[in-house]
UniProtKB/TrEMBL annotation:
<dbReference type="InterPro" id="IPR003033">
    <property type="entry name" value="SCP2_sterol-bd_dom"/>
</dbReference>
<dbReference type="InterPro" id="IPR036527">
    <property type="entry name" value="SCP2_sterol-bd_dom_sf"/>
</dbReference>
<protein>
    <submittedName>
        <fullName>Hydroxysteroid dehydrogenase-like protein 2</fullName>
    </submittedName>
</protein>
<feature type="domain" description="SCP2">
    <location>
        <begin position="59"/>
        <end position="147"/>
    </location>
</feature>
<dbReference type="Pfam" id="PF02036">
    <property type="entry name" value="SCP2"/>
</dbReference>
Length: 155
């Protein structure tokens, strides 16, 4: 790396460093994406959600305290983590309810499975365009804690 003493060169060095970081992130996503098993191409998304239910505690549900829509390949799944109601995970029709706090958009169920298993970090998926977020970003950060808990469990 090349660095001069004035402040503009430090800025150029920083830009070069961030460019190298972005290149390594793209490389990591491409490489990790190639390790996905092709044998289960038609994953049952509701089955994935049902497997996560035992690992979600009331404390975690109360901390998230939001209504989240997960849209995967055009299918909508409603996750209700509001504290005053029991945890609900349902597939819904294409009409999106109005009182949604967060919408997570994923291209396919393999990405969701890799995030839950800890094979793909949410930040990397977001930067690579594999995960799109609409709505309250604070809820998204609280969901990250849920994904970290699922990763550390024997899911």
């Amino acid at each position: 790396m090349f660095c001069l003493r004035n402040s503009s060169s430090r800025f150029i060095t920083l830009i070069r460093s961030s460019g190298q970081l972005w290149s390594s992130i793209r490389m990591n996503v491409r490489m990790s994406h190639s390790f996905v098993a092709n044998d289960n191409s038609d994953l049952d998304i509701m089955k994935i959600f049902e497997q996560t239910k035992p690992f979600i505690t009331n404390e975690m549900k109360n901390e998230i305290n939001a209504k989240i829509l997960v849209q995967i390949s055009g299918e909508n799944f409603l996750l209700d983590f509001r504290s005053k109601k029991p945890l609900q995970m349902n597939q819904i029709d294409r009409k999106i309810p109005e009182n949604i706090d967060l919408i997570l958009l994923l291209p396919d169920s393999k990405i969701l499975q890799r995030i839950i298993k800890g094979e793909l970090r949410t930040s990397i998926a977001y930067l690579a365009g594999k995960l799109k977020i609409r709505g309250d970003k604070h809820v998204a950060f609280r969901m990250k804690k849920l994904f970290n808990t699922l990763k550390s469990s024997s899911f």
